[in-house]
Amino acid sequence: MECDVAVLGGGPGGYPAAIRAAQLGAKVVLIEQDRIGGTCITVGCIPTKTWVQTAHALKDAGSTFAQLGVNVTGVEHDFAVTQKNKETIVNGLVNGITGVVKANGIEVVNGRGSFKDDHTIAVDGGEDVSFGQAIITTGSHALSPPVDGIDGPLCVDSTGLLQVDQIPKRVVILGGGVIGVEFASILQHFGSQVTIVEMLDSLIPTEDADASKELHRAFKKRDITMHLGARATGVQDGDSAVLSFEASDGTAGQVEADLVLVATGRGPNVADIGLEAAGVRFDPRKGIETDAAMRTSVPHIFAAGDVAGRWQLAHTSFREGEVAAENATGHEAEVDYAAVPRCIYTDPEVAGVGLTEAQARERHGDDVAVGRMPFSANARAQMYAEKTGWVKTIHETRYGELLGIVIVGPQATELVNAGVIGITAEATIETIGDSIAAHPTLAEAVKEAALVALGRPIHLPPARPRAKAAAAR
Length: 473
Ligand SMILES: Cc1cc2nc3c(=O)[nH]c(=O)nc-3n(C[C@H](O)[C@H](O)[C@H](O)COP(=O)(O)OP(=O)(O)OC[C@H]3O[C@@H](n4cnc5c(N)ncnc54)[C@H](O)[C@@H]3O)c2cc1C
Description:
By secondary structure, the protein is α/β, with parallel strands linked by helices.
């Protein structure tokens, strides 16, 4: 089988790459060993967020409705229905995107592919695919830390957890990164007793430090137990699992649980796909080396998504796939990573875009100012009965350029898109502060955070002298 562009892997990196290359007139073959949609649709973004929605509903029925004067009795969680809903949504999206791929005239080959040489991909049980250009989008897999007993029957990764037929009464989550905290938040609303064991000193350690602290505070209020700075040393299985850890002060601890979720990161799928035969340079831990055009060390072979090792996000994978396809079909494009939204679907939600405050201060020194607007002073947040959190704007003070927005609170993952557009358009803090935000909306908190940064908030009392001076700098 011959084609202009072969795409290896049909997830958020692969299917947009295949569609874009077809739109640009190429004959495209998409090789996928499983279902089109990849990790994101089948075992990642989509199934986890359907659980998030159920978690929100449980919280609403359990406490929010009563605050709004709606009394519900006999609230029950039918987990079998939750799972069925998740599968229905996943299957619908897989079918939808498979239809779109086919409607673009793309030939889909089912099977595991690996490079035979730099112009041929062999497919298990199928014909070889010879290509002019190729795009590698094989994604990533869950990593397991070197801890005794971590592969026992009561230890699961995120894919295993999504398939359980009963909610674990007690769960210990190894890892306080994005995947770990999302499941902690969901499972606590599902009624599990949740413990997080994290080796570093904070949750979501790569996020803005204020956001990390706010999430920690909120989790504490929700009775989620957190052992931070704690290194797991072993898991023992019996009727239940006992996870042992060593705290930062050297003391030993143990947590007993019905299930252990191992959420300690993901590694690129670079093994056994013939990268050596194709001459593509890669690092087993960091993934395939690419330039901003997503070109690998072999000029007619591109890589995109998790396997390219920059971000592990569906939306960066989408864009990288499109850019790879444009370059593979003779056009010129590059990925601009300045405004990548970072969304964490916990309760409260956390989202950021651009620089964190620490990164901004590292790059711009004292020429940085922030503005912070609490949701407790936002009218719409009060109506939602969601007053936790705030919006923080971060800008540099020489030209006023917006550098980052960080949000903790209701709809943070939606609101952050205002920051995506602002940073992409190189907006100034005045652009945000002087814009007209619809009233009453949560989005007003974004505008008002900018006004705080400019020293002229309307819905907060005047800043104290020190903060005011800092804001005016
Ligand atoms: C629990 C969880 C929750 C997540 N939530 C979010 C979220 O809310 N938002 C977000 O942006 N990101 C989220 N992610 C990350 C997101 O799923 C990934 O970043 C995204 O799926 C990466 O896309 P990809 O195309 O690079 O790889 P994948 O989605 O992993 O797709 C790779 C595809 O390649 C196929 N493949 C691999 N090797 C071969 C081969 N040799 N031959 C043929 N086919 C092959 C695989 O079967 C797979 O379908 C989440 C991830 C997890 C695990």
